[in-house]
Amino acid sequence: MSDSSSSLKRVLVVDDNVINRRLAIAFVSRLGYTTDQAEDGPDALAKLDAEPFSIVLLDISMPGMSGEEVLARIRADSRFGGLRVIAYTAHALPEERQRLIDAGFDDLLIKPITLGAVERVLQA
User: Fold this and answer.
1) What is the secondary structure of 58-108 as a DSSP string?
2) How many domains does the chain have?
3) For residue 99, what are the domain limits?
4) 104: Cβ–Cβ under 8 A, 6 or more apart, which residues?
5) Which of the residues bear the PTM 4-aspartylphosphate (predicted)?
6) In the 8-state DSSP scheme, what is residue 17?
7) Helix or strand run (H / E) with residue 12
8) CA-to-CA distance for 9 and 41, rounded, in angstroms?
9) H/E stretch holding 55
10) Which residues of 53-66 are buried (b: 16+ CB within 10 A; e: fewer)?
11) Domain with 82 in it: what CATH number?
């Protein structure tokens, strides 16, 4: 696979919980995507600065910098105009879902996740 096509299938998984990160990475990898991981917002932003990704699975509730704050920084940076950012969250109430979409997330992946749900958001 060439570098340009592999960067189109790169997913950054951001979650402060190591078990949640490992599960998401296992599902994303099983679906044929290359993954990297970040444990918090600053780490995620540093990885995005360093390497190209096509999708970010971004936890909402993290200490220090929330997923919504990370999203705001991503959306404010023109380099990331085509980047899909998916809220990776346990916030499942309809009003919470709508608030996240209104904030600029492209889709939502509700915890606990399943392989089918991960496949749906990655291929949307």
Assistant:
1) EES--SSS-HHHHHHHHHT-GGGTT-EEEEEES--SHHHHHHHHHHT-SEE
2) 1
3) 3-123
4) 71, 72, 75, 85
5) 59
6) -
7) strand 10-14
8) 21
9) strand 55-59
10) bbbbbbbbebeeee
11) 3.40.50.2300
DSSP state of 2: -
* Residue 3 pLDDT exceeds 50: no
The structure tokens listed for 107 are: 């889709």
113: DSSP letter = P
Q: What are the contacts of 66-75 at 24+ separation with CB within 8 A?
A: 66/41, 67/14, 67/41, 68/100, 68/103, 69/41, 70/14, 70/41, 70/44, 70/45, 71/103, 71/104, 71/105, 72/103, 72/104, 73/45, 74/45, 74/48, 75/104
Give the strand order in the sheet containing 55-59. Answer: 34-38, 10-14, 55-59, 84-89, 107-110
Q: What is the pLDDT of residues 37-95, one digit of tens each?
A: 999 999 999 999 999 999 999 999 999 999 999 999 999 999 999 999 999 998 778 89
What DSSP string runs through 27-42? HHHHTT-EEEEESSHH
